[in-house]
């Protein structure tokens, strides 16, 4: 018997300062750790927010620029409102209801990776 656990995507980044501005200052993630083989080498870091863990890498070959990931969120409206209150210069995210039963807020990072934050659509109250 076996089980699968959490997936940790590796997203390619091209500018450490812009990635930090986006993931930490805007989205609210924290930097858990970072690594460089030497002082002027590309960075590899882990950021997290709640149970969501992402690896961000400047290393050639780590991830493909323009990747898409989906992140489950509870209370998507509250998260969107917090992001809008930060008045981030490069993004004013909105929420869409999708035909497959989710509400989604999609944001592109400075390296063109697409993050779709999603929550299930609440079932309509059919009790009369």
Topology, element by element:
Blueprint: E1 10-12, H1 16-26, E2 30-35, E3 44-49, E4 52-57, E5 68-72, H2 76-85, E6 96-97, E7 102-108, E8 114-120
Parallel strand pairs: 1-4, 5-8
Antiparallel strand pairs: 2-3, 3-4, 6-7, 7-8
Describe this structure in words.
- The protein has 128 residues and is an alpha/beta fold.
- It has one domain (10-120): 2,3-Dihydroxybiphenyl 1,2-Dioxygenase, domain 1 (Roll).
- It has helices spanning 16-26, 76-85, and strands at 10-12, 30-35, 44-49, 52-57, 68-72, 96-97, 102-108, 114-120.
- The mean pLDDT is 93.
CATH superfamily: 2,3-Dihydroxybiphenyl 1,2-Dioxygenase, domain 1
Overall mean pLDDT score? Answer: 93
CATH architecture: Roll
Biggest beta sheet summary: 4 strands, mixed
C-alpha-based Rg, rounded:
17 Å
Say what the CATH topology is: 2,3-Dihydroxybiphenyl 1,2-Dioxygenase, domain 1
Distance between the termini: 46 Å
Low-confidence stretches: none
* Largest beta sheet: strand ordering: 1-4-3-2
Helix content: 10-25%
Task: Estimate the strand proportion.
Answer: 25-35%
CATH class call? Alpha Beta
List keywords for this structure.
single chain, 128 residues, alpha/beta, 2,3-Dihydroxybiphenyl 1,2-Dioxygenase, domain 1, 4-stranded mixed β-sheet, 2 helices
Briefly characterize the structure.
This protein is an alpha/beta fold and 128 residues long. Helix content is 16%, strand content 33%.
């Amino acid at each position: 018997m076996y089980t699968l656990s959490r997936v940790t995507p590796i997203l390619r980044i091209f500018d450490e300062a812009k990635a930090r501005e986006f993931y930490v200052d805007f989205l609210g993630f924290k930097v858990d750790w970072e690594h460089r083989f030497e002082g002027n080498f590309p960075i590899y870091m882990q950021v997290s927010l709640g149970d969501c863990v992402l690896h961000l890498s400047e290393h050639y070959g780590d991830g493909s620029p323009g990747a898409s990931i989906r992140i489950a969120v509870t209370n998507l409206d509250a998260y969107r409102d917090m992001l809008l209150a930060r008045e981030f210069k490069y993004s004013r995210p909105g929420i869409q209801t999708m035909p497959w039963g989710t509400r989604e807020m999609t944001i592109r990072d400075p390296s063109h990776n697409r993050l779709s934050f999603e929550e299930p659509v609440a079932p309509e109250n059919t009790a009369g």
